[in-house]
Amino acid sequence: MHYAFEKVTAIALFTKTSNRSNKASVYAAEIGGKWQIDPKWALGASYNYMKGNAQLNKNHAHQINSTLSYSLSKRTLVYVQQIYQRTNKDARASINGLFGPDDASSSRNQSISRIGIQTFF
Questions:
Q1: Quick check: 37 and 69 in contact, CB under 8 A?
Q2: pTM attached to this predicted model
């Protein structure tokens, strides 16, 4: 769901993802918002809570995301992003979007920073 209030957009999302072969499921809830500071600058932030079922040892994680973006044109923007994740004590943090074999944290905390460019087609 997205709700726009002039320069602020609020979001709320709930999902359940299931693996039918091993019956693992993850529930995820997200709340957040984006503030369009002016026509070029935007600041966004969100909070996610994720919880696995018994097949995933009922592990859970909290994640906080923040992004500052600057529009170069109607199709292109540059951004800086910070993501922090903390899991329960028996799990290793693993931020979605990291794909290498050693991308999960060796502890229950993980933080990444990104600087990027995005083009819309």
A1: no
A2: 0.85
Average pLDDT of span 35-40 = 96
Q: What percent of the chain clears pLDDT 70, i.e. is strictly above it?
A: 96
CA end-to-end distance (rounded Å), the chain:
23
Averaged pLDDT, 11-30: 95
Bigger pLDDT: 42 or 107? 42
Counting other chains too, the contacts that 35-42 makes at CB distance below 8 Å and 24 or more residues apart are 35/7, 35/8, 36/7, 36/8, 36/9, 37/7, 39/71, 40/70, 40/71, 41/68, 41/69, 41/70, 41/71, 42/67, 42/68, 42/69, 42/71
17: helix, coil or strand?
strand
Please state, as a whole number, how many other Cβ atoms lie within 10 Å of the Cβ of residue 11: 14
